[in-house]
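Cancer-related nucleoside-triphosphatase (Cacopsylla melanoneura), 254 aa
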Amino acid sequence: MLGQYCVVIFVQCISCLSMLCFCLDIMSGTTIKRNIILLTGDPGCGKTTLVQKVYQALLTSQVKVEGFYTSEVRAGGQRSGFDVVLLNDGGRGPLARVAYMEDKKREAKKREAKEKEADDVMLAIMEHEMAFRDDIYFQARSTVPGPKVGKYTVDLKSFESLVQPILTPEKLKVCQVLILDEIGKMELFSKQFESSIQRIFQTSQVILATVPTRGSYLVEQLKTQAGSNLIQVHHGNRDILVEEIKNKLLLQIK
């Protein structure tokens, strides 16, 4: 009897909490869209890993999903950029790469510092190793002109050719959940992508997306639309959020 009473109290508390969140959203004067869930958090907190786990959980529940995630690219032991990976067919292409000339300057400075300290034998060994690493690393560098974010050059043509086809109205007609990882500074250099985001977020499409903690005006607008469905991800909660987010998405598509 006591156990049943506790369950009833727990359910009532959850209902009250949901109602409180809803009321706060209304009081803010914004149009809250329950079909949108946004994940945010510091770089490296596990947003992409969380998105991938939710994707797998949705597939297990027979949900039709479209979307993409962003994957780090490493070469020669260093991060050389980021790739966009399509969730369903595994299609992959560069989003951004380290700018070639900037990286060559850094390598030259390192080489000069090492030359001062090394003797002739060690210098010959290091030059051989660095030449080998250059051959590998050069293949992952950007030689394509494009907008810059820090040391990275964004490959808009590659990004748009991969992502835009999955964002068409025809494609989304059969999509129950759209996953976008991420809607960030690099991606929003694409005016095509920005326009698609503005269009899709005005529909009833169920969306799970990641956004930076501080973003453009558009990103801040999307956060406002998400209301209480803007979720802060960190190392302490990223694993337990999988089931919660999956259930929220399932609730929206039923």
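DSSP finds nine helices and nine strands in the chain. Confidence is low (pLDDT under 50) at residues 2-29, 135-140. ok done for today
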